[in-house]
Amino acid sequence: HVVHLSPASSHPTAGSQGQFPVTQNVTVVEGSTANMTCRVDYNDNTSLQWSNPAQQTLFFGDKKALRDNRIELVRASWKELTISISEVTLSDEGQYTCSLFTMPVKTSKAFLTVLGVPEKPEIIGFSRPAVEGEDVTLTCITSGSKPAADIRWYRNDKEVQGVKEVNATGRSFTVRSTVHLRVNRNDDGAAYTCSVEHITLNSTPHQVTEVLEVHYAPQVEIVHSLIVPQEGQYFKLECVSKGNPLPEPVLWTKDGGELPDVERMIVEGRELIITTLNKTDNGTYRCEASNHIGTNSDEYVLFVYDPNALTPHGPDHALIGGVVAVVVFITLCFIIVLGRYLARHKGTYLTNEAKGAEDAPDADTAIINAEGNHAHAEEKKEYFI
Ligand SMILES: *[C@@H]1O[C@H](CO)[C@@H](O)[C@H](O)[C@H]1NC(C)=O
Ligand SMILES: *[C@@H]1O[C@H](CO)[C@@H](O)[C@H](O)[C@H]1NC(C)=O
Ligand SMILES: CC(=O)N[C@H]1CO[C@H](CO)[C@@H](O)[C@@H]1O
After folding, report:
1. Which residue puts its alpha carbon closest to atom 14 of ligand 3?
2. Where are the transmembrane segments (predicted)?
3. Half-sphere exposure in the Cβ direction for 279 (13 Å, CA)
């Protein structure tokens, strides 16, 4: 236990040549030992005495005056009288007096402060398990602290606010802190820790934890292993059910009745396995889970696809279709290009023929004319493009 010493000392006012006792306030933790020291710097062989808050003399010089085994002499001289009080209790607290028997008597007061260590806290008020929707009050209690201890609450290591109440019980304090909550399924398993902090505990608070148990109705969801179930495939439905108490076993039904008695269908715990899917397996599958709080269910509509209907050599057709499209396109392009080429040449020829033939008296002139009219023909050719 740590002894906290208040460094201040008390000095008497009027001095008769510096002959006065000097003491210090002392603070100790209950159960430990307090040393009370009284010093006189200049002393002409005058006796020193320690007395307790009830004005009983403890030691007069080196002579023990009170029968109390816990009080012992540490040092006695003309300049110092030090006594020790072991196993200090809260009732030892008070003002102790050191007297120097001069004429008149000079005294010095020393206050002994005893700190009370808080007891291990306790959480009360939780009658486990709670049912979802119930109001729960957790109260953490610690007694015996002096000064009053501080209580902090943590929910899964995150601090939450409590309502504190302090009551004096004798010389120490009983401290309570309360948290209220209406529990739901998310509170199931939540850990509430009460942490008691006090100067006597340094930085290691007393802690106690209560783990909430909340009962709630099942929550059911069916999870399936295939997105497109096909005939002949292995298929698994899992009934994912939460709830407290854990709903077990779960009940599987098909189309409102019992599961058909086929070897391909196996129920394993919360799983329904169909080893080889068949078109006859389609229908509505239902998983039901119950506990004493309630019942819940989920449904899954199974449609077994025919693998042949689903993929009728689709990829081949697509490929052929693509090739055909490309071939048709190339052919079309070719035809257009060829068509234009033919049309251009045919037009030029016809123009030349026409011009030459119309205006010329003979064939030779016709040719000459035709060449002369070439520019004109070019214009005509433009027309065809
Ligand atoms: C000693 O403690 C008492 C009581 O707590 C206080 O009134 C007094 O001032 C203290 N004296 C010194 C010197 O600190
Ligand atoms: C589906 O079941 C029927 C009758 O039970 C059976 O005749 C058929 O062969 C099965 N189909 C497959 C793909 O197993
Ligand atoms: C939705 C669906 O396809 N239902 C079919 C399930 O299989 C039976 C016969 O096995 C058909 O009659 C249903 O139409």
Report:
1. 282
2. 318-338
3. 5
Whether the predicted model's global pTM rises above the 0.85 cut: no
How many angstroms does the Cα of residue 284 sit away from the middle of ligand 1? 84
Q: Return the ligand 2 atom nearest residue 279 CA.
A: 1
Closest CA relative to residue 220, chosen from 243, 199, 194: 243
Give, in order, the Cα–Cα distances in Å from 328 to each of 49, 319, 321, 325: 126, 14, 10, 5
The pLDDT tens digits for 251-262 are: 999 999 999 988
Beta bridge partners of 160: 153
226 contacts: CB under 8 Å, gap ≥ 6: 233, 235
CA-nearest residue for atom 6, ligand 2, is 278
What pLDDT does 87 receive?
A: 97
Q: Which residues line ligand 3 (CB under 6 A)?
A: 279-280, 282, 303
The beta strand positions in 61-171, using DSSP E, are 63-64, 71-76, 80-85, 94-100, 106-115, 122-124, 130-131, 135-145, 150-155, 158-160, 163-169
Which helix (H) or strand (E) segment holds residue 156: the answer is none
**279 alpha carbon to ligand 2 midpoint, in Å?**
7
Q: Where are the alpha helices (DSSP H) in the chain?
A: 307-310, 314-359, 363-372, 374-384
Closest atom of ligand 1 to 6 CA is 14
